[in-house]
Design brief:
mainly alpha
C-alpha cells in the first residue's frame, strides 16, 4: 500500500476527529465512526474500513467520506474507484435548497473524480458544480478548484473578473494558494478579513450542531453573525430560515431577500438565484426583468445550474433581448452538470440557437433516461424521436 495513501487516510481521520458533518446518523453509526477513527490511528485499516462502512450504512456522512477515501486508495481492502464515487456522492448531499447536511470534503473529492474522470466519465461541468457546493460549505480548496474552472470560458458560458476575484478570495480566506499574494496586494483579502471569515465558519458549524430544544433565536443569532463575518452560505441559510420561519418565529420575506442579496454579493449561487426569482416575479421587490437576468447570470457564473436555466428561459421567451446561442450554451452547461438535459435536447432537436443535432439529443436523453436516480420525462421525449 503506498505510504501517501495511508497518510492521506490518517490525515482525514484526524481532521474529522473533533468535528464531522451533521447528519441523521444513528447512535450506533456514531459509535462505529469513532471506532473507525481509532482503528486508523493505530494503523488497523481493515477494521477501520469495516467500521466506516457500518457508520455509512447508518447514515453517518463522515463515515461515508472516510470509507470512500479508503475504497478509492485501496486502504484496508481492494480499490474500487466506481464505488468510491458512489460513496462520495452519498456524503455530498445535494439538493435545490442546499439546506441539507453535507460533507464539504466529500463534495470536493467527488468533484476531483469528475474532473479527472476517475471511477466513471469525465464531467468538468459536474465537477464545477460540486466544487461550488463544497466552496459554499466552507472548503477553501474547493473554492480554488471552482476559480480555476471559472477561467475556462468554454465550460461556464458566463464569467466576470469581479466574480472570479470573489471566489478566488474565498480560497485565500481559508488557506494559502499561489495567487493569494496578488489578491492581498489589490486589497481583495486581508488578514483581518481572513480571521473574521474563519470565525464565521465556526459559528456556522456551531449553528448546525445545536442540540434539540435550543431556542430558535440562538440559531438565528449564530447565522446572522456568520453572515456578517462574510460567510455567504450563512447568509443564504439565514435567508432560508427567514423565508420559511425559524420554527415558531414569524416569516419575513423582505429580511429574507436582503440576506439572499448579501449572499449573492459574497458569491453564493443559490442566493443570486433567489434574488433573480424575486426580481422576475415582483415578490418583496419591484419587478425588474433586466436586473433579474443579471442576478441569474451571477448565479450561473458560480456554477449554480438553476440560475443558468432561468437565464436561458428568459432569453428563449423574450423576457429580455433574445440570445438563443447563449441560451443553448447555458442549457448545455445545465445538462453537463447533471441537472437535467430535456431542455437542452429540445433545442438540439429543433435547432434553436444552433444547428439541429439529433444524434447528440438522443445521446443526452438516453443517458438521462437510464439514470434511475434522476426523475424527468427524458424517456418519453426519447420515445418520440423513434
Amino acid at each position: 500500500m503506498p505510504l501517501s495513501a495511508l497518510l492521506a487516510v490518517a490525515a482525514l481521520a484526524l481532521s474529522l476527529l473533533i468535528a464531522h458533518p451533521a447528519s441523521a446518523a444513528t447512535p450506533q453509526a456514531e459509535a462505529n465512526y469513532r471506532a473507525g477513527q481509532q482503528a486508523v490511528l493505530r494503523s488497523d485499516n481493515v477494521t477501520a474500513r469495516r467500521e466506516f462502512e457500518r457508520a455509512c450504512d447508518g447514515g453517518h456522512l463522515g463515515g461515508c467520506t472516510m470509507l470512500a477515501t479508503m475504497v478509492a486508495d485501496g486502504v484496508g481492502g481492494p480499490a474500487d474507484l466506481r464505488r468510491a464515487r458512489q460513496l462520495f456522492a452519498k456524503a455530498c448531499v445535494v439538493n435545490i435548497s442546499w439546506s441539507s447536511a453535507s460533507d464539504a470534503g466529500a463534495c470536493l473529492m467527488l468533484g476531483d473524480m469528475y474532473a479527472e474522470g476517475e471511477g466513471g466519465p469525465q464531467k468538468p461541468a459536474r465537477a464545477a458544480y460540486l466544487y461550488a457546493r463544497a466552496c459554499d460549505i466552507g472548503d477553501g480548496e474547493a473554492c480554488d478548484g471552482l476559480a480555476l474552472m471559472m477561467t475556462q470560458e468554454d465550460l461556464i458560458p458566463l464569467n466576470t473578473d469581479e466574480m472570479l476575484v470573489i471566489i478566488a478570495g474565498r480560497a485565500c480566506l481559508t488557506h494559502e494558494v499561489e495567487y493569494c499574494e496578488d489578491l492581498y496586494e489589490i486589497g481583495a483579502v486581508d488578514d483581518a478579513q481572513a480571521s473574521t471569515y474563519r470565525a464565521a465558519l465556526g459559528m456556522f458549524n456551531e449553528a448546525h450542531r445545536l442540540p434539540a430544544g435550543t431556542p430558535p433565536s440562538r440559531k438565528k443569532d449564530l447565522l446572522t453573525d456568520a453572515c456578517e463575518g462574510g460567510l455567504a452560505r450563512a447568509c443564504a441559510r439565514a435567508a432560508w430560515e427567514w423565508k420559511h420561519g425559524f420554527q415558531n418565529m414569524p416569516v419575513d420575506p423582505q429580511r429574507a431577500l436582503d440576506l439572499y442579496l448579501r449572499a449573492c454579493v459574497l458569491g453564493d449561487g443559490a442566493g443570486c438565484d433567489e434574488v433573480g426569482d424575486a426580481l422576475r416575479s415582483g415578490s418583496a421587490i419591484t419587478k425588474n426583468l433586466a436586473d433579474a437576468a443579471d442576478a441569474y447570470s451571477l448565479a450561473c457564473q458560480v456554477a449554480y445550474p438553476p440560475g443558468c436555466r432561468s437565464l436561458a428561459g428568459m432569453h428563449r421567451r423574450g423576457d429580455i433581448a433574445a440570445d438563443l446561442p447563449l441560451a443553448r450554451a447555458l442549457e448545455r452547461f445545465v445538462c453537463d452538470s447533471g441537472w437535467g438535459c430535456v431542455a437542452f435536447a429540445d433545442m438540439l432537436i429543433k435547432g434553436v440557437g444552433g444547428s439541429p443535432d439529433l444524434a447528440r439529443a438522443r445521446q443526452v436523453l438516453q443517458a438521462e433516461c437510464d439514470n434511475k436516480d434522476f426523475s424527468s420525462n427524458a424517456c418519453e421525449v426519447l420515445a418520440t424521436l423513434g
